[in-house]
Ig-like domain-containing protein (Fulvivirga sedimenti), 82 residues
Amino acid sequence: PICEGEPTPALTATGAGTIRWYSDAGLTNQIGVGSPFVPSAAYVDNTTAGTYSVWATSTSAGCESTGTQVDVLVEPALVVDA
């Protein structure tokens, strides 16, 4: 997990061939290629607490694997009262 305001972490995946990243479980919106991959704020908003999901596949010899869900948990920033 990261806290609100911290940089979005680089996500890593392994597999034979090319790693592709998608914003949806149906694998219709590809948002990146390669590993490691840092999703943009459109897909992982590091300024708002919540769980953000992307999906990774591996493509080799023209065949693409099923998607694997990768979650990024953004925790609320701590507030200190003075």
